[in-house]
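Many introductory courses stop at the sequence. We go one step further.
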Amino acid sequence: MYSKGLFGTYYPADSKVHDMSIIIKLLNFFLFILVMIGSKSLRLHLVILVILVLQILESKIPFGFFFNMFYGLRYIYIILIFIFASLNLTLELSITYLLKFILITEYLALLTYTTSLSEFDYGIYKLLNPINFLNLNVSYISLIIGNIFRFIPELIFTENLVLKSQASRGIDYNNSGLIGKYYAIVHSLKNTIRLTFKRMKEINSLAKLRIFDKNKRRTNLKTGNFSFYAFVLLIFHLLFLYLYILEVNLI
């Protein structure tokens, strides 16, 4: 699924980031989230930002996609700034928390732009496979998690369609002020959720037509490579975790 760089849509390109093993991608993302949850070091966040920007450049995805996402969340940034001010946080800590939110959204965008949904399903299945000794239906669990990843981009894609439809009836999100944008989003929310769930049912029906069996072992044509580039990125993410451990004096 690809649609003009909307968040969550796969952007096909010939890059080292696209060709990375999905297992390494998901493992890196897990390590990244661990650091983001606990770290309060501005310097560590800035280092992670540099590595993320280098990955974005290497991915060969138009940089404008990431900037548009950053710009589209500008009102959330303003709200966060007011919240930080009301909590009397220091300037450094406020910048760190704001950067934390930006890093998570942009990293997630990079992950979804460079990974197809079938790769996601396969990668999640392989990561969960070690818990098979608990006699759990890992294939079914991976399907549920995969549907969660599908739901977010489908929701955003559907929201854009609904907003465009509303514009023809006078509720124009793109050419309205802050209050007008709020009204357009609230007015579109019910139809967006209804159409998104309808689309998810269609996706699950398509999976059945492709003879997907949630009770059998998953396979995938493209699984990515454990290249030197992937190894270096994994080392960097482990380094981020190590620096966080030093930050909180766990060792």
